[in-house]
Amino acid sequence: MKKILHIDSSVRRTDNSTASYNSISKEFGRYFIASWMNKNHQDTVTYRDLGLNPPEFISQEWIAAAFTPERQRGKEQTLILAQSDLYFEEVAQADVIVITAPMYNYGMPAVLKAWFDQMMRVGKTFTFDLARGDFPIEPVLSGKTLVLLTSSGEFGFGAGGVREHMNHLSPHIKELTKYLGVDQFYEIGSEYQEFADDRHAASVEKAKRNIESLVKQIG
Ligand SMILES: Cc1cc2nc3c(=O)[nH]c(=O)nc-3n(C[C@H](O)[C@H](O)[C@H](O)COP(=O)(O)O)c2cc1C
To answer: Flavodoxin-like fold domain: which residues (predicted)?
Structure first.
């Protein structure tokens, strides 16, 4: 029995009366989870919609609390880290993490970056030791699988594409997820949303087929 953590980050909903207003990345997330649960009835899903319930931004007080050893923290510092602790527990418990993300300004949505900022914690997600030389940071967690499901308005962000150099969405997330204990990283996305043409429809269909294949492969 596996534990799935499902994180959405588009600010768009999925229940708009005009279908084209609905989030595509969230739709991919739902499609993935439905396919997965169809195959693995016993698994459990923890769900967070960061778009509709954004994390708090970290602050100077947050950093001070995070770097204060747990036993020395006052009540206020413990409270400041409560959201971070909760997010961390959800990641620590998960076998499979599904993150859905729209491309905003060539990168991830601010709410998803805020979630990562809350998540990355010394002594929890990583250890820091200068005895390791120029690479003092090492992840603590391991053995997790991450599936990233994306949607973009333009196109050509993949390997060899005309906008590959402008893709600061998936390379950034892939880099960060090492610190969530991710050993297996998979990415599926659609492009062309802004063109609203056949290329977009074909891209969405292809992404859904790839989601089905991925669930067959790893589910
Ligand atoms: C604030 C904002 C910024 C965006 N920036 C980009 C961008 O830099 N590149 C791009 O290809 N599409 C961009 N788009 C288009 C979205 O990636 C596209 O609409 C995508 O489908 C959004 O994901 P969603 O359908 O899950 O909400 C942007 C959309 C918004 C709302």
So the answer is: 2-213
Ligand 1 binding pocket includes 118 (Cβ within 6 Å): no
Architecture of domain 3-218: 3-Layer(aba) Sandwich (3.40)
State mean pLDDT over 150-171. 98
Check pocket membership of 26 for ligand 1, CB cut-off 6 A: yes
The closest residue, in CA terms, to atom 2 on ligand 1 is: 104
CA of 24 to the centre of ligand 1 (A): 10
Query: What is the number of the ligand 1 atom nearest to the C-alpha of 25?
Result: 26
Q: Which residues pair with 145 in a beta bridge?
A: 96, 184
Q: Does ligand 1 come within 6 angstroms of the Cβ of 43?
A: no
Percent of the chain exceeding pLDDT 90 equals 100
For residue 180, give the nearest of 145, 150, 205, 132 by alpha carbon: 145
Q: What is the pLDDT of residues 76-119, one digit of tens each?
A: 999 999 999 999 999 999 999 999 999 999 999 999 999 999 99
Strands (E) across the chain are located at 3-8, 44-49, 96-102, 126-128, 137-139, 144-151, 182-190
